[in-house]
Design brief:
Number of strands: 4
Largest sheet: 4 strands, mixed
Distance between the termini: 181 Å
Helix content: 55-70%
Radius of gyration: 62 Å
Strand content: 5-15%
Length: 257
């Protein structure tokens, strides 16, 4: 009897304690649930913000890389264009220098030509022989004069010196007149048939003066009855002189030198 009463008393004492303990556990779980749920929500929001920021940063980095590569390509293209322009400028400078050198050479050549324009020198020579007491040209003489006229046709600057002579037969006065007639016959043919301007011809009759052979022999007198024809050109630079007379030299092979 006493034992049953004791057990009831214990049960009645323990029951409130169990009830209090269970109530506390339930309250703790509810507190934890009410506390952790908002925290998780905030953490999710932070994670989303972090992910978005990371994505934005990655996109910005990609854009920066693209811009950097584009800038490098543009810079390389600009450098290539600058190198090309520099090369063209160098070529232009070299061409200008060569042109200047040519201009200087031409100026020096022109100055040399001007300095020597009145300093004539022999270029070609021919001799026409005449019969005794005659001043007429033979067919062979005319052919020789044709060749000479053709040889000077391409020249720009020249004069023709014509000198008439005789042998010593006859008087000095008559021989002087005959030497002029022989020179005039050559001039007439060169101007009329060879189309050489008269202004380019200088002539003189010397009579029996300046013989090229003794007048004591038949052969010598024949050689003295002559007209000497000399083409004179200025002492211009060799290159210009060669260009001026190249065709003339080739065509005057039959002219006496």
């Amino acid at each position: 009897m006493n034992s049953s009463r004791s057990m009831r008393f214990i049960a009645l004492g323990v029951a409130p304690l169990l009830l209090l303990l269970f109530s506390g556990c339930v309250a703790t779980r509810k507190f934890v649930r009410n506390t952790t749920s908002p925290l998780e929500t905030r953490l999710d929001k932070v994670d989303k913000k972090v992910d978005k920021k990371t994505s934005n940063n990655a996109e910005a980095i990609r854009n920066l890389d693209d811009k950097t590569e584009t800038g490098i390509a543009q810079a390389q293209n600009s450098a290539d264009q600058a190198n090309k322009a520099a090369g063209q400028a160098d070529e232009h400078a070299q061409a200008a220098d060569q042109l200047a050198q040519k201009g200087l050479s031409a100026a020096n050549q022109a100055q040399e030509t001007a300095n020597n324009i009145d300093n004539f020198q022999p270029s070609q020579h021919a001799t026409i022989l005449f019969g005794f007491n005659k001043a007429t040209l033979t067919a062979a003489d005319q052919q020789k004069l044709d060749e000479l006229a053709q040889s000077v046709g391409s020249m720009k600057h020249y004069v023709i010196q014509i000198q008439g002579y005789t042998d010593k037969t006859g008087t000095a006065q008559y021989n002087l007149q005959l030497s002029h007639k022989r020179a005039d016959a050559v001039i007439r043919y060169l101007t009329m048939n060879g189309k050489i301007p008269l202004v380019r011809i200088y002539s003189m009759g010397y009579g029996e003066a300046d013989p090229v052979a003794p007048n004591t022999t038949l052969k010598g007198r024949k050689l003295n009855r002559r007209v000497d024809i000399t083409v004179m050109v200025p002492q211009i630079p060799a290159q210009q002189n060669a260009e001026a007379s190249s065709s003339g030299t080739a065509s005057s092979a039959g002219v006496n030198r």
